[in-house]
Design brief:
The protein has 138 residues and is α+β, with helices and mostly antiparallel strands. It has one domain: PPM-type phosphatase domain (Phosphatase 2c, domain 1). The protein is 22% helix and 24% strand.
Length: 138
């Protein structure tokens, strides 16, 4: 048995973000101008190997930037033709779609329904997590 995991520590004041992954899909980052990329870190799923070490990375979540993380339930969903949703399709949708929060989650769930079609059997959980850094209000 094993489990995948994404672990992060965010300093909301500075936007500094430390993170590590354990077999988890790499989080996508949507910048204010609509560009997307992935945050890279390496680590095997938890429970596979004792004494496993995990790479810890650092990034800054600038104001206007949304980090989006999703497990395999979304990007590994299959359509009726057997094609997987994949990370590239997610990144394209993130660069074109709404900035974040509830609007982003609603858009992603509608896109998942459209992609998989009626009668889709869910193979994995679909959990959506978004971190957004807004400009400080004085």
């Amino acid at each position: 048995m094993f489990a995948t995991c994404f672990y992060a520590i965010l300093d909301p004041e500075s936007g500094r973000h430390l993170y590590a992954t354990a077999g988890y899909n790499l989080p996508c980052c949507r910048h204010e101008e609509g560009q997307t990329d992935e945050l890279a870190a390496r680590g095997m799923p938890l429970g596979l190997t004792p004494e496993m070490s995990y790479e810890v990375k650092e990034a800054v979540l600038a104001p206007g930037t949304a980090r989006f993380s999703t497990p395999t339930g979304l990007i590994e969903a299959h359509n009726p033709q057997g094609q997987m949703y994949r990370t590239l399709r997610l990144r394209n949708l993130l660069s074109e779609g709404p900035g974040g929060g509830a609007d982003l989650h609603a858009t992603l769930m509608k896109e998942l329904e459209r992609f998989t079609g009626e009668g889709w059997e869910q193979e994995d959980d679909v959990t959506l997590l978004t971190l957004e850094h807004s400009a400080s209000r004085s």
